[in-house]
Automatic annotation (TrEMBL):
Lineage: Bacteria, Pseudomonadati, Bacteroidota, Flavobacteriia, Flavobacteriales
Top-level taxon in the UniProt lineage: Bacteria
Species whose genome carries this gene: Pseudotamlana haliotis
Protein name: DUF4861 domain-containing protein
């Protein structure tokens, strides 16, 4: 009997040591003098040294509770590569989290507020949204219709803004009522509307290449791939046919993502053929005000819009943002405010988005610029993640 007890005791010690060895703990450090929230932490399998994330969750060790997380299959091979979560970390502080195995019973069920999809019922839009804003871009069928003079097409690589004023998803609802004839997303019935004109402009964040004093742009996207939807992030991949910029052959593809709580989409663009690109904001009737802060890496356009006001912006980190320019011309839709951005190792990362006064999120231009300065401070001082051994 005593031998059995000793054996059991040793076994428990071995099991305990084994369990401790398998525990994966991370520390999230905030070096700023402001509380951090609504910022997404990305944890890859390679960083965590975990082979299988399929049942992974995140446990807040300080609060002793499971927090909302999202698994992402980044490369589309059917295997989750990354886990996302948005920690709350006090100023000049740190917080500890553990990667745990969770079941369906203790998993947090949250609405899929970050959502995107290809929209074949409306030509071939690709549209995305979160709980704050919504956007869309245009595909090859819409381009072909213009080239063949078929009504209803769109030739533009600009980014459209859908002005929503509710936190729940509206994409499917708006498309359904427009395509079945029961309504139109051009009319506001309490949720917002699409009354933002893009045309051949850059809209909110469309890309251009400046050669001498002229701007060159691509046509519509040619390929797409959805990456993820969920409570924390939506992301997708777009590819463009190679295009010419005054003799420079440009090769362009990008991943666009939008996180919960953010008014700015993130554009991670792979581009070959140039060392500098320009992301633009349409100036519409040119009755608004272009402002910028090169030190904080942003340019913004605040304008009257219908019976309200609208602010748009391009923002990048201090190593990417060069300068900004107001480009004005008499040619329709070609007047834009541009952010000039450095391409590093054939990649450029920037953020683009908007603030609609009618949504109640921002009352005026000053509120919007305060948000941009805060956003800049955060991306230039990212949360530091440490894996405890």
């Amino acid at each position: 009997m005593r031998k059995h007890l000793i054996f059991t005791s040793v076994l428990l010690v071995v099991m305990s040591c084994s369990q401790k060895k398998k525990t994966t703990t991370i520390v999230v450090k905030n070096a700023l003098d402001i509380e951090r929230s609504n910022e997404t932490v990305e944890l890859t399998k390679s960083f965590l040294k975990i082979e299988d994330l399929s049942q992974a969750g995140v446990f807040n060790k300080d609060a002793q509770q499971i927090v909302l997380s999202q698994l992402v299959d980044q490369d589309g091979d059917g295997v989750d590569d990354m886990i996302l979560f948005q920690p709350k970390v006090k100023a000049n502080s740190e917080a500890s989290f553990e990667i745990i195995k969770i079941s369906e019973e203790n998993k947090i069920n949250a609405p899929e507020l970050c959502y995107s999809r290809f929209v074949p019922e409306r030509t071939d839009d690709y549209t995305w949204e979160n709980n704050k804003v919504a956007f869309r871009v245009y595909g090859p069928t819409a381009q072909k219709m213009i080239e063949e003079q078929v009504p209803g097409g769109t030739l533009s690589s600009g980014v459209d803004a859908w002005l929503k004023k509710v936190e729940y998803p509206i994409i499917n609802k708006w498309y359904e009522k427009t395509t079945n004839g029961t309504g139109s997303y051009h009319n506001d019935t309490g949720e917002g509307l699409d009354n933002f004109h893009v045309g051949v402009s850059r809209g909110v964040g469309g890309l251009a290449v400046k050669i001498d004093t002229s701007y060159y742009v691509s046509k519509n996207y040619t390929k797409w791939r959805s990456i993820t939807n969920g409570p924390i992030r939506t992301s997708f991949y777009l590819e463009y046919e190679n295009w010419d910029a005054a003799g420079n052959q440009i090769k362009e593809s990008k991943v666009i993502s939008l996180d919960l709580g953010s008014n700015l989409s993130k554009f991670t663009t792979h581009i070959e053929g140039v060392n500098t690109v320009s992301a633009g904001l349409t100036l519409h009737e040119k009755d608004g005000e272009v402002t910028g802060n090169p030190e904080n890496g942003w340019v913004s356009y605040w304008q009257p819009h219908a019976n309200s006001e609208l602010g748009t912006a391009i923002l990048a980190n201090k190593h990417t943002f060069q300068s900004y320019e107001t480009y004005s011309t008499d040619k329709k839709d070609l007047s834009n405010a541009y952010a000039h951005l450095n391409v590093v190792n054939q990649q450029v990362v920037y953020y683009a988005g908007f603030a609609w006064k009618e949504s109640g999120q921002f009352n005026n231009k000053q509120d919007w610029e305060t948000y941009l300065n805060s956003f800049s401070k955060r991306i230039n001082n990212p949360l530091k993640i440490e894996l405890l051994k």
